[in-house]
Structure formats: C-alpha cells, structure tokens
Fold each of these.
Amino acid sequence: MASLITCPHCGTRPKEEFSIRGAAAPKRPSPTAKDEAWHRYVYVRDNPKGRYEEYWHHEAGCRRFLVVERDNLTHEVFGVTDASQFKRAGAAE
Amino acid sequence: MTSYRLGSGGAINRGQSLSFTFDGPTYKGFEGDTLASALLANDQMLMARSFKYHRPRGVVTAGSAEPNALMTIGSGARAEPNARATVVELYNGLAATSQNRWPSLKRDFGAVNDLFSPFLGAGFYYKTFMWPGVFWEKLYEPLIRRAAGLGKIAMQADPDRYEKSWAHCDLLVIGAGPAGLMAALAAGRAGVRVILADEGFRLGGSLLSESAAVGGRPAAEFAAEVVEELASLPNVTLMPRTTVFGWYDDMVFGAVERVQKHVASPSPDLPMERLWRIVAKQAILAAGAEERPIVFGGNDKPGVMTAGAARTYLNRYGVAVGGKVAIFTNGGSGYRTAADLVAQGVDVTAIIDARPQSADPDAGKHSGHPQRFGHRHEGPAPHRGADRRALRLRGGDRLRCAGDVRRLVTDRAPDVPTRRQTGLVGRETGIPGAGCGQCLRDGRCRRRPRVA
C-alpha cells in the first residue's frame, strides 16, 4: 500500500494518518428503495484486482472523507479527491 | 594469554584505553574497537556455543553478517541478548556475557548433545518425552525450556526511551563505502539534500579494511577526508550507526539509529534508539557485498574465518588473527590477505588455492609459502586424535605445517550483493535484470526506475 497520500487539503501525509472506510463506488439507495437494492448496498461488494476507488478518512489531519483512487495490485495512487467532489464513474442507481 | 594487538596501525585510538569484561575477567581494548576485535586482541577466539550441539564457536566475520559471536551485552534491565560482537562498539565498562552454555563457555555441559548427535537428528521425535506422564511437568519441560533459545531477555521494564522520526531528502545513500561516499560527495557538491546512512560507527566501509592506496594516500585517510568534506556541507546529513532495513512504497525507507548503544552511561535526555522513516526522491543502494565462506568439513571450528574479516581485523583494528595463518582461497582476495598479513609480520604457513592455477598477479609473490593448486581443503583434523597440525587435502595429501596453526582463513566465493540489511531481498530491486520478477520484457524495471 502507498506509504504517502497527498490530501487535497493538507498535502502529502503518511498513510498512518488515515483510516480506510471501504469501497466508494456503491451509492446509497433512497430510503424507499426495494429491499433488494438495500441488500446489494449493504452486503454485496466487488473484490476487484487493479484500479479501485475507496473512502479514506483523514483522521489525524483535516478529518475530511476523501476518495483515493488506487491500484491495489501495483500500489499506484491515481488521485485523491474530497468526497464531496467525488463523481461516480458509472450511472448512479 | 598472548596479545595479538599489533604495535601500530589501525583506525583505533591507542591513547584511549577502555576496559571491559567478558564472562567475568577484565580485558583492555581501545577506542574504535568492536567487542570482537578487542576479544581477538586478547586471544579470546572462543566466543559462543552453537545452539543445539553446543559446539565451540569463534568469530567468522568482522561485520553485521556475523552468525556466531552472539553475546549478551549489559545486565539487569538493560541486558541485550544475541548482540553480534562484531558490531558492538566498545565502551568503557562494557560487560559481555556468553550465552547457551553451562557452567562456563570453556566447559559446557550441553556439549554432551554433540556425542548423541546421531540420535538427535533433524527428525528426532520429541514426543519421546511424553512418557511417563508425571515426568513432563517436573523434568522434561523445564529441561527443554532451559535448552531453548540462545540469550535470555531481560524481565524488567526497559528503562530507556525510544523515539520515531521522519526525514526527507532528495537523495538517500545507503552505505558509506567507497561507492556511497563518492555518490554522496558528488550529490552534496551539486547542492542536493543528501542523507548518507551507514550501519557502522565509522564511515568508510571497506576503505577502512584495505591497505590499498587511493590517490597516493592510504584508503582510510582518503575516506576520512571525504567524510570531513561531507560533514562541512550544510545540505548533507551523515547518519552513522543507522541501519536501513526496509524499502517501502513511495520511496519511504525504514531505518534504525542506535543513538546511545555505545555510551557507558546513557543520557536520559536522549533516546536509546530512533526509528527513522526517510522519504527520498531517489536512493542509491551502496550496501556492498558479503563474503561467502567456502564450505569444508570442520569449518565451524573457532579460528576459521573469512579472509576479508582477517583483513579488517588487521588493517582497521590492528589485530592479527593469529600467529600463523593458513589460507584457503579461490580468488585474488586470499593473496591480498596473505600480502597484508606478511607485511605485518604474521606467518602465512600455506596458501591453498582451489583452482588448478591462479591468474592473480599476486600469486607469484608468495613463492616463499607452500602453495597448492587444484586442491580441496578437507578441514583441520577431525574431532579427536589425528594430527591436528596437518591440513588435510583431498587425495590423502597432507600439508605439514610446523608449529600450531590455529587460525585458518577461508576466502571469498564470488561477491554476492545481497542488499542485506535493506530488506530488499525478494522484493523489487529496481535493478534491471536483477531477477526479482519485476523486470519488463525489455529488461527495464517495472516499478522502480529511480533507484540505482
């Protein structure tokens, strides 16, 4: 895993300042969505090899939620954005 | 007790005598000694016992690769087990204790295991000790627990502080041998932020161990001049006593600095050790090569060591490894060692070369010593009896050496740059064609083009 993460607010920081909060791709369904959609959101996860978007919480810094796009095979980091700026690649459900 | 300290030479401060103890008796060494070199100077070749069969063990290397000379340094809460005597810097009042022996290093009761070694093979079934049941808790387990492990860890709380630090630089140079020093100097003069880390307490690496001249001056003197210039550059940070042990993603390196391990009374204001994480834009691995001993029967006896180690003790610490030395070699380094030893008045009784003939220019210079080519050395005499002074050669040939040839020196197999102590073995080396599995088809490194 990358040793250094460049936070858009704080600059380059060691990875120990962050905690990983899971995949960023799944979108929270509306409260009235069917059980099936909620089941998928809560339990079903892809386990991709390669490029991967993930929530990182900068706990020891700005305390913002970030989305880190990284390759979990080569450990390369492609970009870090604030979670509020994050645009999901696929069409949102 | 014979003193093997030479009258002059070496990078030690003969004006500053230090006293230390090993298993009780007090010995004298000098500032700049390691524990191993000071023990050798005091004719203490027996330094440890082997783990299982308690065979006698002497020092084999002069650096951090030492497998044999493991000792406990200090006492009480500060006791540190399994310290390598070859890298322990000598200080006044150092107390070293040998390990894995009872009642004493010279007479070790555990050596009876050696007699039973045919029954205690690698596949020995330790469940043999299950019967009778009552014996397990009362007898077997205490015995086995006592036999397990080499040193004993201190059971008191550690009285010292330790700390963690980050460092940032443009270029990290790992190893302060000739290559590392010159790389750091070139980069330092260019105004780049450089960190030069070396595990030794004196920067210079192999330059300190060789009698060769660099630019008309002795190699150690040359190293000292380069270090002096590096120290005068504000953009260069020298980190002696710092072992770089790991290389992580994003060019972050892990290193441990022994801040006060070499101090008789540590200051409470400083940490004992410091764990560094060094972020470098680029790095140069100048960790050097490790000498591989040649394998032969009886090569575990005290007195057998690598030729490079003998040269280090001679040139850096001013210690002769013995009064008479036989050299078993398969390369030029054996002849260099012989030349250095002879220059210091050590009797080289034989040079045995494993090759059919030697192409080394130095080989002819030693016509005074019996030289045997194309031989395989079969080791000193077996356990007991026989002629201990004879060096057995293959084919029943015996090379008779007058006197007591105690120290037999083997020589290096081809240099193997293991990148030891950098944690890089088995990882991507960043070196094209290094066989780490990360090479692209065209030979370039997949991931680490920035490390030379």
Note: Residues 379-390, 394-408, 410-452 of chain B have pLDDT under 50 and may be disordered.
Amino acid sequence: MQKFTTLNGLVAPLDRANVDTDAIIPKQFLKSIKRSGFGPNAFDEWRYLDHGEPGMDNSKRVINPEFVLNQARYQGAQILLARENFGCGSSREHAPWALENYGFRAIIAPSFADIFFNNCFKNGLLPIRLPAGQVDALFKAVAAQAGYTLVIDLERQTIGAPDGTVYKFEVEAFRKHCLLNGLDDIGLTLQHVEEIKAYETKRRAAQPWL
Amino acid sequence: MTAKTLYDKLWNSHLVRQESDGTALLYIDRHLVHEVTSPQAFEGIKLAGRKLWRTSSILAVADHNVPTTGRAQGIADPISRLQVETLDSNCAEFGVTEFRMSDVRQGIVHVVGPEQGATLPGMTVVCGDSHTSTHGAFAALAFGIGTSEVEHVMATQCLLMKKSKAMQVWVEGTLGRGVTAKDIALAVIGKIGTAGGTGYAIEFAGSAIRALSMEGRMTLCNMAIEAGARAGMVAADDTTINYLKGRPFAPQEPEWEQAVAYWRTLHSDMGAAFDAVVKLDAADIRPQVTWGTSPEMVVAVDGCVPDPEKMSDPVQRAGARRALQYMGLVANTPIAEINIDKVFIGSCTNARIEDMREAAAIAQGKHIAASVKLAMVVPGSGLVKRQAEEEGLDKIFIAAGFEWRDPGCSMCLAMNDDRLSPGERCASTSNRNFEGRQGQGGRTHLVSPGMAAAAAIAGHFVDVSR
Ligand code: SF4
C-alpha cells in the first residue's frame, strides 16, 4: 500500500450531501476484474454528458462543463472537500480505487459512510472528518480563492490552511500507523497465526456444528 | 455480570485479539462471495502466493451479472461473461463451493445463504456486498466488506475492525393491513436518516419485530445499511429455529440440540444498555413510497411530495431541489397521482417466497395498466422460483401481464440487461433509489411488493391498506 505522510495539495469542492458509491463509480465499470484504471470513470454520470461504458476512449467523450471537477481551476486536485455521509451505499472498493486513481489522496467531510471510510484506508486514501462548521468554512475559502491548497500532516493530525488556521483531526492509532508506514493488513494479521489457530480449536470444542 | 446486548455477545464470542487502541481481530465464520467484488481478491491471493485459510467457510454464487431470460444461451455481454467465468474458474481452482448459473440453487447471494442454512445464529457473516446486513435477521453479526477485506478474510479468516456503538430500534404493536417489513424499514430510515445509523450496529426488537417471519426480518435487516448501519440484527427465537430446521447447511442431530440451546441465548439481556434507542409505534406506520434519490426521502402513500422551499436546513433543501429535478416531480404532488412506466419486483430486499405471495395476492385476477410498459417479477433464487411455481404464483403473474424471470439481481442495479431508460419511472421493491441506480436517468420509487403490484395494476401508486 502507498504510504501517506504529508500532503500539500490543491482542494476541489463537491458541494452535495449523501454522495453515494454508485455516483462515484457507476455499476457498468464494476464488471472489470482489475483493480486499476477506474480514474477516468470517477463520477462518470456527472462528469460526462454522454453515457459511459467500459472500453470507451474517455478522451473523446463529451465533458459536462457544469461539473465542478471539470473546471480548469480544480485540475490536479489531490484533496476532495465533501459534505455529510460521503460514500454511502454499496461496499464497492471500486469507489476508493477510482478516487485514488483520479488523483485524490485525501477527502475531507463532516461524515463518511462506514464501509467506504474503511475501504479508503486500505488504499492509501485518507478520509478526514471535520466538524460541519469547519467544512463549511473550507467550502467558502475554496470558492473565494483559485489555487486554494491545504497541507495535511498525518503524523501531527493537522490540516494547515493558507491563512494560517490549523485544524486538528482524529484518526485511529492503528490505522494511522498502517498508513504512515504503508503496511499491508494481511501481513500484519498473519503475525498472529498461532492465536487464530488457538481460537479455532477452542471454538470447535464449544460449537462443533460450525 | 453486566447485562449484554446481542451485539456484545456476538462480538465477544469472535474476538481473537485486541490492540491497545481497541482495534480487534475478529474471527469470521461464513464468507459469501459473488462475482463483482471477488476477482481482485482472488488475484491478490494468487499474486502473494497465499492459500485460503478455511475453504469450507466460503460459499460462492454469481448474481449481479446473470441474465434473467434466455439463460441457456449464456451471457451476451462479453465483459459480464468474463466476470462470471472468472468466479467459476477461481472457485474451481481453490475448491470453493459455488452454485453455478445452471444450478437450481443459484440466486442472489443474500437470498441463497439463508435458504441453504449457510447463515446460522451466532455466526459472523461477511460478503463483499453492503446488503450482507440481511443475514443479521438470524441473530448473526453480518456486514458488508470491501474487496481488500474479502482478500483479508480469505487469507486469514479474520478481519481487523473496531467495535461499533449499539442502537436499538424498538417497534411495538401490530402492523396495519397491507403494511410490511419493507414499510418498517423505510419508516425507520425516514425517521433517522440515511446516516442515522452510521457508526452503529442496529438491533431491531419489540413485539412488531417478534411477529415478523424470517423473510420479513431479512427485509428489515437488509435495509439497515440504508440507514447507515453496517449491521442489523434480530434476536433468535422459535421463528428462527423453525426456519433453519432441515436446511442443507444447518447442523443435524445430535449437534442440532446443542446448537439450538446455544442459539436460545442469542438475545439482548434485560437491562442491557444501548448507545441510542429509537422507538416506533407499528400502528402509526403507513405503506411507504420514496419520492427522491435517497432512501430517507420517503413519505406515506397518502402523503405528498414535500416542498424543498419549506426545509430550513440549506444542505437538505439543495438536496431535495436536486432530487425533485432528477425525479421529474413537482412539490406538493399527491403520491397517488404519480404515474409509473415500469415495475420491478425482486432484489435481496424483496424476492423471497413471501414477497412473491404478497405481490401475487394483489395481482390475482387483475391486469397491469395499459400505460405500464413492463412489469417484471424476478425471484431471489431458483428455489424461490420453483416454490412459487408449485404454488401457481407464476400463472397469476403471467395472466396479469407480468414477466416471470430467472433469478438474479436484475434491475436492482441494472448490471445485466434489465434496466430503465432515461426518464422512465419505476415502482421498485429494491433498496436504493440513487441517481442512475436502475439505469442512467431512471427514476426509482422504493415500495413493498404489494405496493409495487398494486401500482402495476393501477398505473400509479395506490394505498394497499385501503
Ligand atoms: S439484489 Fe441489489 S442490493 Fe441486493 S445484492 Fe443484488 S445488486 Fe446488491
């Protein structure tokens, strides 16, 4: 997994609540048996005016000029600013794969859906919860200034704004450790093989039908 | 000893170890697998040269991409076909039990698991699919996971996770005529919102829940995720035990008695503390219809489309405005005046035998309205289909002008050929009304099977409780 330590990135705002994973990556792209290549189809139905199908040449498609991420000032954004309940709906990990492949490394929102939140950490993508008031202030600041960037420091758990404001955020110690070091969960769990086996032995004695 | 919730009991009994920050290694008993979220996990296992930890814990079935007509000809779309074939070859290579497309046991993974007795009380059940919450109806701890976690469970039989908070949704009293588990689910989501259960595991309890069949409890737990909760659950009782007796994967004598004795302990203790409690009176719940693009945008069938301009919260107002525009609806329109183009009866929410019966009872002796372009019934599994046919339900549907299809996810998410065209309006028994969910530009109204069948007959929504 890709490490995450610090990030100085351009911010793009997506001003809607309840953005679901069907919107982040529509189902037709879930037919892929690969883990990569979803970036050009992130937010497909909002981003393009024509209907997208797997295998199309996305560079030839009709861009929706109204969609915020298509605006020139947000090209190259690495931080997505979003509203409540971001990533709700399906468990598809294709959603964080698409966002990461698009170029995002962090998402800031007042709240995230549980499965999506969890999936982000497995892919080097940092979801940050900030109070709704602070997110609101960031939306205003991004709108007011082209080229608005934030500096995210995972070790310190801070977000630095250009005006000198520093926002603190929470992250679970274990997840932070894994992200800072780019650790693979499976490798970590397999350090506990003996404990898993001992658990199984005990369970088999108590509940032999399982 | 302090009183424990059902969730506490399920959690504690699967704890392998715990880190100092509370991150737990939780043991997984049952792993259900489908074609969409597993190929990258199998690939990861192969690339790392790992083995499956416990092959017998896995049960696989293809559901999202399978056609619901002309199945003998195979899957026409080459990309869909490759995904299903990839599941077949992975299962063959690793020795995983799979119900293939031609097997009568094939169907939607969340219908198939319980039907086979592969979901048992006291288990942890996972699947790379958010509606895994369905299986909590059996007093199991069941939740959806991402593909990285699918691979993690395959390789280690465990998951790394933190305990959620516990919420109790208490529904007391008797449901009115024509009001179903689907309406309870939508009413709960309407009350707490689609993020109301985020960070919680929900236990549904109260006399109205006790009175539900297993099918009804599955419908309810299925939609816990739509309320934001990864897991929903119901305590085990006679209804649970009677349902499981004799199912192929359920324990046999002499272990059956031992299992039942354990299952009877799977309920929240008297006085157990919950982090949040939500109460509903069953008698107040009316048949529900969603009007927007999120399951929380829901009203009773005798209500009207709400007016965004009367909403005080700006984010909510903007969301409602956008939803009405997408749905092609005008504020204050009575729900009963909304005309529909298509009807979909199916999905892991409402494609079990009871749902088929509920819809058939409404359709019997009637015919779908001339304005309805397509009304389809898609049973949740081959066994549900067979049972329905034994009861003659297929004949009722066909005589009424419905199409009677083969099992699969179908138009719940339109990954196969069953989908809405832009602008088409559908009464659907599925679980998500998101933009584009049933086809780009398609407009979904979530309802119960009885309500969907009644809408097909009338051409618009009608109140089945009247
Ligand atoms: S029926 Fe719908 S919600 Fe259920 S598993 Fe299939 S696609 Fe998902």
Note: Chain A is about 30% helix and 15% strand.
